[in-house]
Amino acid sequence: MNQTHDDAVRAGGDGLEEHSTSPDLWLRVGAERLSLVRYVFLVQIEDGIPTAAQRSALEYSDAVLIGWPDADAPDVVAVDERQEAEIVAHVRIMEEYIGKFRESEREGNIDDMTDILIRISERVAEIRKIFQPDFPLPTFAEIRRVVQEEWDEDMGKIDPQSSGSASEVEQETRLENEQRDAGEQS
């Protein structure tokens, strides 16, 4: 039977009863929920230049989702009851964070949304590790370090004297005025 998250919710109240669904459902639910939250986050920050923290949160969610396996993939293991209970615990925490993410979105609090996206990604990463124990997932700290280095490098390339900034426009205007004044005096 191909169950959806909505079917699971109807079957088990909050949809998270350990034995109300196929464990494989949680593999799909984790990916779908993180994908949706990631998309909402991306839409929220797309108008500006993302900070290093925002870029790191996106990169981490991407790393968790990249190459997401189907339940019947050869490297996906069957889970036992203990692992299923652990998965359900991660899904519960993830769902709590999603509620907090929605509230932060309503408030327009991008910083909180950034932190919560990281927490949701961590929960989904834990779910993936249970189903796919040999898949190499980077930690958020590893991604943050690389993104911060890239951010610092990018910021170091910005030259306020040649970036089309207000100071450049002011300097160009001053030179034009000096040239005009020199031409009028000749």
UniProtKB/TrEMBL annotation:
Domain of life where this protein originates: Bacteria
Annotated segments matching region Disordered: 1-20, 152-186
Biased composition (Basic and acidic residues): 171-186
Name of this protein: Phosphoribosylglycinamide synthetase
